[in-house]
Amino acid sequence: MSKRIIAKKLMYALITILIVLIFNYLLFRVLPGDPLAMMMRNPRATPDQIEAVRRLYGLDQAWYVQFFTYFKHLLEGNLGISFVYKAPVAKVVASKILPTILMVGLAEIIAILVGILIGVVAAWKRGTKLDVWTLGFSLVTYSVPTFWLGMILVVLFCVQLRLFPTSGMLTPGKNFISTAALIGDLARHLVLPVLTMSLVLIGEYALTMRNTLIDVLSEDYIITARAKGFRERYILLKHALPNAMLPMITIIAINIGFVVAGAIQVETIFSWPGLGRLMYEALGARDYPLLQGVFLLVTISVVLANVLADISYAYIDPRVKN
Amino acid sequence: MKIKDFGKAIFKNKLALTGTVTLLIFILVATFGPLILPFSTMQFGEVEDILLSPSFAHLLGTDDMGRDVLANLISGARISLLIGAVATAISMLIGTLIGILAGYFGKGIDNLLMRFTDFFLVIPWLPLMMVLAAILGTSLWNIIFVIGITGWAGTARVVRSQTLSVRERQFVERSVSIGAGHAHIMFRHILPNVFPLVFANTVLVAAVAIISETTLSFLGLGDPTMASWGMMLHYAFAGGATAAGAYWYYLPPGICVVLVVLSFTLLGYAFDEILNPKLRGR
Question: B15, B18, B26, B122: best mutation site toward chain A, by most A Cβ within 10 Å?
Answer without folding.
Answer: B122
